[in-house]
Each structure stands twice: as structure tokens, then as C-alpha cells.
Amino acid sequence: MTKEQVIKVILLLRPKYYNRFTWLVVLAGISLVTPSIFENILNEFLKTKFHFNIISEQDGLYGITLIIGGLIYNGWVHYLELKRENVGENTKIEENIKNTIHDSKIFETSDNILNEEELNTILNQIYNHEINLDNIKKIWAYNNYYKLNSNKFLNKELSAKNEAFSENLKELSTFLATKFFPAKHSEAIFEMLPEQNWDKTTLGVTEEGEKRYTKFTHDLNELLKRVDQTYREYRETIKTILKV
Hints:
By secondary structure, this protein is mainly alpha-helical. It is built from eight helices and three strands. It has helices at residues 3-13, 17-33, 37-50, 59-113, 116-127, 133-145, 156-179, 207-242; strands at residues 130-132, 180-182, 189-192. α7 (156-179) runs antiparallel to α8 (207-242). It is rod-shaped.
């Protein structure tokens, strides 16, 4: 027996108002079908002394009719209740299916903008303190996609995981915009503070500039870890909920 079937059995046995009404009707019927000893004695006394019967020959028929009517009524009400619950369950299932289809389309579109493999390539590139313009545009496009309310996930858990990843990706985008600058050899390549990197400049780096560069390197590495971790959690949730 499934969990849903057990719940339905419990609902059938649970004492509700119509169950109590049914018991009253059935007990009344039983009392007519099988009168008590006291009723028989009283009936014989009244019949002997006053020629009056309190027990009719038709009482048994009336009793059986009440019992059958009460059971039919109870069964019909149970049927209507289960039918209503099934309609509610079907509605919920249909809603979940629609939500899954919606969320699957949202993920499919965003994955075409920036997928897992591309993100790993970008993070490795940034870890080496450079990134090309096309990859920067992918990060911008991903962030802009989820700014629209129509592109929000309906599943709460999925939405929360994506929000966490998106926030870290936005922070990374801000870091790139303020700490990365066009390389001298190519405007399509951006490097982190090239004038303060011994490997990128021929002018020399001051002690203060070197400390500043070291601090930004540490900040960037921590940020990259957060981006990677939150994306993994988001992607795992996608796999669990959407099965993709």
C-alpha cells in the first residue's frame, strides 16, 4: 500500500460530521430491527392492558431501510470527498509540471549564454590575471539575463542557489571593471593592474604598488572560490530538480 493510499484510508476512518450522522441513522435502524428487552416487555404490557403497540411489524423493514440509506449516504459523501482531493492533487501535479517546463527553459537559455565548461575556462583565465573581451561579454550577458523578472526560476530552492551564484558573478564583474585594463599588446585582452605587475611593465613597481597588487590578488582568489563554489551548488540543484 502506497503512502497516498494510507492517507486515504485514514481519511475514510476519521470521524467527521457525516460519519457521526451515519452512525445515528444506522443505530436508529438497528434499534428498529432488534428492539431491546425493555421495549418488548413494555410493548406486551401496553398491548395487554390498552391494546396499543409501540413496536410495529414494519419496524424491521424501516430499520433495514435506515441502515442501508445511512451506509449509502456515507459512501457517497466519501466518494465526493476523495474525488475533490484527487482534483486538487491533479491540479498540483499539473502546476509542478508547468513550473518545471518554465524553469527548464530558463536554464537552457542561460546555459547557452554561459555554460559550465565556458565558466571554468573563464575562471582559470582570470586566475592568471587576464581575460579576453568575449568572455567579459558572456559574464555581462549572463548577469543581464537574470535581471528580468520573466527569467526568474519558480522553484524556490533553485532560485536561491542561482541568486547566490549571480551575486558572486556580479561582484566578479565589478572587480573586472575596476581592476582589469586593456593590455598594451591587444585591446581585446584585459589584465589586472598591468602597471603594478612585474611581468607586465617595464617601468618598475613601487613597494606600495606591489603590496596593493598582492592584496588584490588575494581578494580575487577568494572571489573566484566563491563563484566556483556557488556555481557548483547551483548546477547540482539544477541536476537534482530539472534532471539535466
